[in-house]
Specification:
single chain, about 150 residues, 7 strands, about 40% strand
Length: about 150
């Protein structure tokens, strides 16, 4: 198993196959894909999982996370997500977030991400925005949560 940076075009094929196979291939392309860092997890020569990271200042967004259906549940996506979270933190990111399909929220929680109050639907699928804080931002967020609980 190997995780490496990949070209956006390499991510597009797997994104389409896993996320929106019923749509046109262009549906999975992002307008700002050239600004992201795209990661792929390979088992041998086969690309089995992809995830794109978009960093803006001290914030980052995880986008278009997809693992081949037959390879899900074997830890590939977990390994890829953990690697990308570590890279984001090393890059100085203080807050990372994603638009998670609601039925996948439990998966992201295993990596310290928390649901927010922001929910929406797109293409007939329901999403919730999830976030995680790193470093001093995590400490401030924890303190703010404690203070909020104490005042309720």
């Amino acid at each position: 198993m190997e995780i490496r940076r990949i070209h956006k075009e390499d991510a597009w094929k797997l994104r389409h196959e896993v996320m929106w196979p019923e749509r046109e291939p262009d549906y999975i392309k992002l307008e700002d894909d050239e600004l992201g860092t795209h990661y792929g997890l390979y088992r041998g020569e086969q690309l089995v999982s992809v995830l794109s990271l978009f960093i803006t200042g001290t914030e980052a967004q995880l986008r278009k996370f997809a693992t081949l259906e037959l390879e899900q549940g074997q830890g590939y996506g977990s390994r890829l997500l953990q690697t990308v979270l570590e890279e984001a933190e090393q890059a100085g990111v203080q807050r990372i977030y994603c638009n998670a399909r609601t039925y996948k929220a439990g998966f992201y929680k295993k990596f310290g991400m928390q649901t927010t109050d922001v929910v929406f639907s797109k293409g007939g699928k329901d999403y919730v925005v999830m976030e995680r804080f790193f470093g001093s931002a995590a400490e401030k967020n924890t303190e703010a949560n404690r203070e909020g609980l104490q005042h309720d």
